[in-house]
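job 3f2a | input accepted
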Amino acid sequence: MSGNESKKLQEIEKLQKRVINGSLSRREFMRAAAVMGLAAAAPALYAKAAHAKPKKGGHYRVGLPAANTGDNMDTATNSDNFMITMAQGSVRNCVTEVDANGKAIPELAESLEPSADAATWAVKVRKGVVFHSGKTLDADDIIASIEHHRGEGSKSAAKSVAESMGEIKKDDANTIIFKLKSGNADFPFLLSDYHITIGAADKSGKVDWMAGDGTGPYSIKTFEPGVRAHLVRNPNYFKADEGNFDEATLLALNDANARMNAMSTGQVDAIARCDLKTAKLLGKKPGIDVLETEGTKHYTYPMDVRQKPFDDNNVRMALKLGMDRKVFIDTVLRGYGALGNDHPIGASQNYHASDLPQRKYDPDKAKWHLKQAGMSSLDVELSASDAAFAGAVDATQLYAESLKPAGINLTVKRVSDDGYWSNVWMKVPWSASYWSGRPTADWMFTIGWKAGGNWTETFWNNKRFEELLVKGRAELDEAKRSTIYKEMQSICRDEGGSVIPCFVKSVDAASDKLGRPAKLAGNFELDGCRSVARWWFL
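job 3f2a | predicted structure (538 res):
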């Protein structure tokens, strides 16, 4: 083989690698091959890469944020990236999962069949699925796992979602009937909630969550909360094309700079949540791909509307009008985002209220609202930590500057990253927060805005919103449903207790030696927090 032919072969192999890991389209491959004089062979060369099957083997190391010393395997309490990746994305499964196209597809279910009014659902349990402990999955395991999140004593973040599932009965060992209080065309999505993973039930109908048993592609070898988890492949996993690594180590790297350094120096194979200030520089390093994924993620500043001064909507409006959203996106997100409009439904989602006027920075109007509240100025405190989102403290300082022309003096209280979600969020009157979002409007509203919900971070209760929530869930006419959800977004925008400045792209990084699906899921970082399950080494 001549030197020129060897060089061409190396270039083609690089292109094929990019096809396999999803960073090169068919058109781009064909164009590059033609430039090398390989136009005739290009279709076959592309097909070989495009249809390559995942390989087994290797030790995957991934650096993840949002780890805490109080983390545990009871997914009712999981709240962020590290534990979602470990529990739902590695050790356990849900009844359904959200795919890269944003659709709810069966996972531990074999099928889901609705009644004509979508108020009754028959779920067939996938046969032949085995827990790491050796127990075979059946309907009792799924029922017990869901019941864990329901009832008066439940402290689960998915309590409102689980309770909306109505009456649950086992029809036979592999069939479950859900009788909802009203029709819900989005019901399959609820069964993909990362809190509602499926554990093995004992004879009393209870699940020992701390045992860490699951049906997922990996079992737990060691777990040091807030530090790391070491996982090993489950040889009996029911998805043949997933669970490809022999081992996986999940490293707790809460600091964005630490994650970037670990990726840059080869200590890890992938990281979630790049530091946006230096993401482009990282992408220029040989062997590293920076991954941008559109999704439903948004940053929020929730106020406890039960407490003064946030119980006055004029104050809330002043704080919303005092946010310079464009500067926030350009400065904090480095352009990796889109304007938020103080409601949680993004432009990429069904029922997005695109005709709702975009709120603009208007300190004079903010002053007017303060005056309506009987104030000429306002002193207020906001607690922030970079655990809320990367750069949250600096972002909040920027917000404070934009509020000054409105006569609002915002003091930014920097708090500890560790324990932020258990000790600060929803414990103080005003704090920084973020949501990965949810695939449907109903789900997002139910888990984050419904009165009395465990994660209703503003403690908001709006009568009209509650009526529309129930009505929209049962409405099967798409046009009517769209009208309902658009009104709900308007109510959130104008009466809700949260400043939502932006929707954010997921910006992650991965070695180019990793294979991954051509299209990544956008519901969470790193392929829906499932890179451990779905990716492989080339």
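job 3f2a | The chain has a mean pLDDT of 93.
job 3f2a | closed
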